[in-house]
Amino acid sequence: MKVGLFIPCYINQLYPQVAIATLELLEKLNVDVYYPQGQTCCGQPLGNSGYEEDSKGACKVFVENFKAYDYIVGPSGSCIYHVKHHFDILEQTPEVKKVRDNAYELCEFIVKILGVTDLGASFPYKVGLHKSCHGLRGLKLGSCSEVMGIHFSTEEDLLNGVKGLELMALNRKDECCGFGGTFSVFEEAISVKMGKDRIKDHLDSDVQVVTGADHSCLMHLEGLINRNQQPLKVMHIAEILNSSL
What we know:
Number of domains: 2
CATH architecture of the largest domain: 3-Layer(aba) Sandwich
Helix content: 40-55%
Oligomer: single chain
Low-confidence stretches: none
Shape: globular
Strand content: 5-15%
Radius of gyration: 17 Å
């Protein structure tokens, strides 16, 4: 299979180590990975702000860059969700449908498409998993706590396969962190309070490292942690799965 590696703009600019970890993980799994040099933002910030019509240009560029690949894989649940569910604003050509149908968040691709849960990683720390709203409720990467039935989580499956890692149980395991993209700008006070609540849950649960599959949420939490000088480290799940400590 030919996989197009989609690196969201904020990861490209601020967290290049996440992009590198994602690439190395896929290469370890013998995936034929390509990085389209012309890729840009997927258009999510404009769409979230109510300017969907103005985002069409970015959406079309995305399709043009990734239409040749069997799968599109990215380390961001919210961006992948945008591609799959909000590219409906474009004319639904075969190319657009192919891109939408074959876009996958990294963990989902590894577990559901490649059928792998043990990546041979080692990370001897107590880890708290933040389940982002887009990944959990949008992409269905796991079961929601308020829904009765069989529990499942692609992220937990992968973390449980990491040697030495202790996945800590949180009191409110799938509560929103308050980021919400532009919500954190327009409703700053509420966003900060929600983020502090999530951080307190991790601290109360004896967590050393906070992780997740959406670095926009992790960026929000990390900012609050650093500002308040709290004893927590934040890492994207790709970094942990690629670790050999």
